[in-house]
Amino acid sequence: MARVRMADVAREAGVSVSTVSLALSGAPSRIPEATRDIVRRTAAEIGYRPNSLARGLRTRRTDTIGLVSDQIATTPFAGLMLRGAQQAAREAGRILLLVDTEGDVEAETEAIRALADHQVDTMIYASMWHREVDRPAALPPGTVFLDCVPRGGGPAVVPDETQGAGLAMAELLGAGHTRIGYVGADEVLHPEVPAAAGLRRTAYRSALESAGIAPGPALEAQGAISAPGGRAAATTLLDRPEGERPTALFCFNDRMAAGAIAAARAHGLEIPADVSIVGFDDQPSLAADLDPPLTTIALPHLEMGAWAVRTAVRLLEAEETGAEEGTTLIPCALVRRGTVAAPTAR
């Protein structure tokens, strides 16, 4: 099937080729708006699509955005980041080109070079975990960082971990709990998550202090970021004598919360009648499917992905590098389900 050309649009609309060009480009001109509407309508009706290569040669832009990630595309956990980025790219008339490196440094360098060779207009550097990163030397000016913060500064977006943990603690304190344990991530086992781990733990302690409750090591335990790790850490806390045992647990993430639920049941405790549990992340295919469904904090993955693309486009159109821009925090949301209740008399 022959490609519909600009000359075909001009013939059908009864105007010159130059008029079609100006009308479809949106460039300032003396063409009446009614004529522009006729040209646009005709182009749509006969299936005309602009030649992106020719336009790119004129504007020096390809309307593409490169997104380099470590392992976001290979896990369902952070898929909402990609969905938010894709939606924002479509709204901006851009195409998102994704490369997942699975954390391989050499693959990352090659991916950045390949995207540059394909002349993407700008790039987004994304991480599976909220963490600090060294800026790869090959990244172009104006790169936006998604779910990570570049050392040395630059435009970045991450979840508001402090605000999210505050919501979790407010839910438990509001239910009447005063002995709240923290099932945290072992930062020695998981050096890749120090930002999230530290911020959530600090917010837990601050919430207790604000409520007039003294935090202490007796109500904190760390473990591997997994269901077995959460079970082991929660067991340490639930092994305490009944009068000292926590009546609620705030867990670093949903996988550890799943382990905490198992630990509570092994102690003969009912959830939430005997112990309340709150997780973090609202992980798909986990939090809502637990028994009972887990009350948790949802990470703003969709909003973060959209923010990254919109910021990258804004910097591109303003021809700015974003060097002076800092880190934007996106609020988290509380998702109430079935694991929080008031503490029982016992």
UniProtKB/TrEMBL annotation:
User: Tell me, what's a Pfam family for it?
Assistant: LacI
What SMART domains has UniProt attached to this entry? HTH_LACI (SM00354)
**Superkingdom of this entry's organism?**
Bacteria
Pinpoint the HTH lacI-type domain residues: 4-59
Q: Which UniProt keywords apply?
A: DNA-binding, Repressor, Transcription, Transcription regulation
Q: Which SUPFAM superfamilies match?
A: lambda repressor-like DNA-binding domains, Periplasmic binding protein-like I
Per the UniProt entry, the signal peptide is: none
User: Gene3D superfamilies recorded for this chain?
Assistant: 3.40.50.2300, lambda repressor-like DNA-binding domains (1.10.260.40)
Q: GO terms for molecular function, please?
A: DNA-binding transcription factor activity; transcription cis-regulatory region binding
Q: Which InterPro entries match?
A: HTH_LacI, LacI/GalR-like_sensor, Lambda_DNA-bd_dom_sf, Peripla_BP_I
- What protein name is recorded for this chain? LacI family transcriptional regulator
Give the species this sequence originates from: Brachybacterium aquaticum
